[in-house]
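User: Batch of two.

Assistant: Item 1 of 2:
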Amino acid sequence: MIPTNALKNGGGSCDFTIEVIGEGMAVAAPDRTHITLGVVTEGKDVQPAQKENAEKIEAIIAALERLGVPRENIQTKTYSIEPQYDYADGVQTFRGYKVTHLLGITLDGVAGAGAVIDAAVAQGANAITDIVFLSSESAKFEALALREAVRSAQEKAAAIAGALGVSLSAIPCKVQELGQEAAPIRFKTAALSMADSQTPIEPGQLTFRAAVRVWYVFA
């Protein structure tokens, strides 16, 4: 990990120090969902494949709006038209075109993810590439994890100083935040069950982690 946000006090020396690393963690229930899904169509000619794709995407968007998803929460993530080839005995033969249109769908909350997937599949979605659960208060929980990391470093330094029979400076002479971030909860297509009943999606919990390296002068 790369140290960032180094802080130093204005005076004193770090020549004789106790160096510790503190780690902290905060757990939060996700309250936002981002789903990436769409349609992949193929055809010998590009226009029919493109037309079929557009019709299915329009039907998916309409179905999502009927579920109450605002139009501004639906946006194109990927759109591509690619030629496809077969290869046999070293010979390349043109097979047709593949049209891919993926939508990014943002939901307030986590309960509607399964219904969105089922509605999209019913209208022709055949590519569900990512489901991510997030927190709208990530900054708050990152700060909580960072405070816990600093407390952990203080406790470690105090324990070491006590064992050595020395006293620590009241304020560290140097603090570095070690780069860590919350890992969003992701689900991939292979983990989803496209059954007739609503697709079960469990959001779980988000874990925010922080770490600091701290130097205390001792005497």
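Item 2 of 2:
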Amino acid sequence: MEYSMEVKNLRKNYGDFVAVKDLNLKIRKGEVFGFLGPNGAGKTTSIRMMVGLLKPTSGEILINGAKIDDVERGKIGICPQELVLWENLTCRESLKLMGDMYEVPKDALKQRINNLLKDLFLEEKANTTVSNLSGGMKRRLNLAMAVIHEPEVVVLDEPSEGLDPQSRRVLWNYIKSLRDDEGKTVILTTHLMDEADSLSDRIAIIDHGELLRLDTPENLKKEIGEGDVVEMVLSDPEKNRKLVDELEKLDEIIAVLEVDGQVNIRAMNAVAKLPRIMESVEGIGVRIADLSVRQNTLEDVFIELTGTGLRE
């Protein structure tokens, strides 16, 4: 197995606070590697160390077997969450300037710019100044600038943040093409569970600076177990905790959690369990304001592991 990146016992301390605690990862060549965690979990700190922007307290990072300090700067392309653009340049000028900074040969750069403008649906805006682009177009240009020099490892930090569904689909297709057509390794941080599920070959879930799980989306969903999830909003959310305590006493309930002001109940064949669940609700003297039943998702895995929603 060939690895693009190996992270060994990575640690970052800020005084007495441990932001990242002995993180170990092996990221395979040519995979989309999802990196998930609640806000403040240590994701951004980890990523910044992994791409050489932040010095770790201890541990090491290897890129294709070489220490990160010895790696050429062009091996990694970074698309940050915050847009980094020149507002007064056109799309084509922005890509040319970025390519020149990485010393991409002139003929190769021209072809690469044309391909990127086409692949990211920016051809018609090639000569439009950045300040006149929509938010979705700016984000797609930001990605194009991150890969203009054809890096081996592409790091995408919240690439779909604030995008409309159409722009998101363009972005997803391009990320898949980076892996499938160009053999790139893509490291993806995202708040969107369907994005992580759809794009990632494997997913690492991190919380409090520690790695909780690393597996394929399919295996992670199997780990939490089959079954359905009942999402319930009570007329009096103050009673959520009391309902959780009551439902935990029932043998037929696999798990019950309070998440974002609602009660999530996981059970096999949940619809058949609803009458018994309703009895518990009535027993604490409260009404149901809203109720839905759905299948187990990656979001449920995340909540089970971290006890929180991704945006909390």
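The chain has ten helices and 14 strands.
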